Fold:
Amino acid sequence: MKFLPLVWASLWRNKAESAFTLLALCIGFMLFGTMIAVNAAYEQAIDDARMDRLIVACAFDCGAIPLGYRDQLARIPHVTAVGAVGWIGEHQQDAQHPITVTFVDEGIRSAWPELPMTPADWRALDATPAGIFLTRKAAARRNVRVGDTVTMYSGPQGTLDGTGIYYFTVLGFIPDPPGWRSAGGGPSEIIIGNLRYAQNWGRPDERDLVNILRLAVDSPENARGVCRQIEAWYTNASPALYCVPARADAQELAEANINMRQISLGIGAAGLFMILFLCANGIAESVRERLSEFGILKAMGYRDGHIATLVILEAVIPTLLAALLGSVLARGVDALVAHLALTGIIEMPEMRASLAALVWALAAALLIALVSAVAPLYRLRHTDVAAVVAGR
Amino acid sequence: MSSELRQIVAVCLIGIGSLRERFATALVVVIGMACVVGVLTSMLSVTAGLARAYFRPEDATRAMVWGGRATFDQMRSLRPDAIGTILDAPGIARGRGGAPLADAEFLMWILPVEGFAAGSLQVRGVGPAGIELRPAFKIVAGRMLHTGMRELVVGVGAARKFGLTVGSEVRLRDGSWPIVGVFSCGADIIESYLVGDAVTVMAARRRAGFAQVIVQLVDAKAYPAFAAWLTGNPALSSVYVERKTDYDRRELGMNTVFFTRMAYVIGTIMALGALFGVVKIMYATVRARTREIGTLRAIGFGATPVVVSVLAEAALLGAMGALVGATIAWLIFDGREMWVWGAFQLRVAPSLWALGLTWALVTSLLGGLLPALRAGRLPPVAALRVE
Structure:
């Protein structure tokens, strides 16, 4: 503690320069924090996708599979639940207001229990077939409240009566399901509807057709085997089926896109590299300008260890402070990145605040401070005290 | 040369000449700016590479005809019986033998090759004019497929990505199809696909319908009449016509809009960090040169040359950093193959070098402004007293 006044005084020797150094360090750590969050989001999206959840779709370019497959798949050994999912995506008022509704059946409750709907939500959806549940973001974007009516225009002949208009009643709001934000819906939002309504009110020629079936199996070890079995049995069916565990699907999705995991780490490293030199230069400059002060301290009896502590603290305090501030600011950038991800087909998982990002930032700050202090400490250690005090 | 200009040149040369003594400090600006420009150009090389894969020079005189509002390659909304009517439209160029230079095509996902991304492998069904529409198309191994035969050729991008070669087989709905050749097409996105005879592939998938007709117009001016004839034709219940360049822009935008925005956001954040770094470093520089500046002022040099010299030093260091960053990005990434729903080569294009240089110059000039003003305001007598 006795060193702190000395360190504090030296830190603010050149106020403007210290302030700008701190700002630059904050920005560097802010970028680092955001990149760690992006990386973690992709990792988390893959972790959230479970191996014991299977996705079954049409194998060869047919787009839809018969609802009748649902009962057949339920009889396969190790399959514990089967649910059907169908999407209808069009627009509300005009083409600038796209909307995609994910219609699910009762089987989804067990086949995709990660969908964050409560038993009461399911009961409400069952009792009101034209009801929908919106994720909070989807609701916020449309500014709707419980009880509101949402209309969707699905194109000419898109409905039983030929008008193409679906009328939905907002039943409530749900959190975003884990995993990719577009999973089961349009980018960044999910609107859950009742498959019964889509079947009864949709195009007659699309009745009894769904887009995918979701399966749950009794253990992750059986997932690949069940998938192989489904593909083998349905090879010559019309349509043939393709099956993939949800976790493998998430991994493949991450690999098919721009590899944001690798890129985020590269950018984070570049940010740290940038501030490493700034920090090292600041400490070196500080020590160079205060050689006589250190000489006097040594003459007063300060040992090399004490001097080293002073220099290290002078490096550690601003970097740790910048890491803390930068990590807080990174949350704002995270929100901006999430907002940017709303468009395009590069799918971006949900970014969440995590303690790990802060720990990484603090560890990086400590490392930068220590590396920055090495050269100045070496110089101090080989300084001739008498010469310095004499001003030579 | 006016007196003030001579003074500016002289003070700038003195400042730049003393950079060697301030090597470590100057290096911080160079490295900082190199990081900013390196990251920015590396990220934007993805967009530049994809742009090269989508935009072809001949696209300016081409049009796409879609069935209704289905404007994606994987759609099947264009009925085969509508193709003849579309080919009757005015303004279509003629190919070999006088046939319309237009081709009905589609893109189709096929089952993933074991160990690779699901659904990434696609077959492009092309017709007789499909190859003529792609002048860069060239078989580099094996042979060209025969029309009407159950065989495919694979683009060099897909071949590298999925380990496919002549003799490999892929599974379509009616069984395994052999790959009889490997083709290149001047880095066009089609190199990411398998190519098969459209009608034969359509028969195999047991689902009729094309995604679009790609049309070569006689010239760009022919487009309005061509589009009007198609959209007003009662024999075609619902078609959508667009210029090929609009389609390219749409496809490119979907693939890169998020990433491009991210590149600019990250570039701006890093530039902000570098800007604060430049301010700090240039303040330190002014402090280190206080006596020198005081001396110059005392012997008659004005404030403007001093201000300009500090700004020039900041700009020079920024430009050096930009060149270092762009060079590193170019060495590491230019020409490197990447896959984003298709194969393409990253490209650190000349425009990205220019962008990086501008980015760095603006950042370093802004960063040098406050220290430069301080240097210009230094009272000569006080500056000379500094130890």
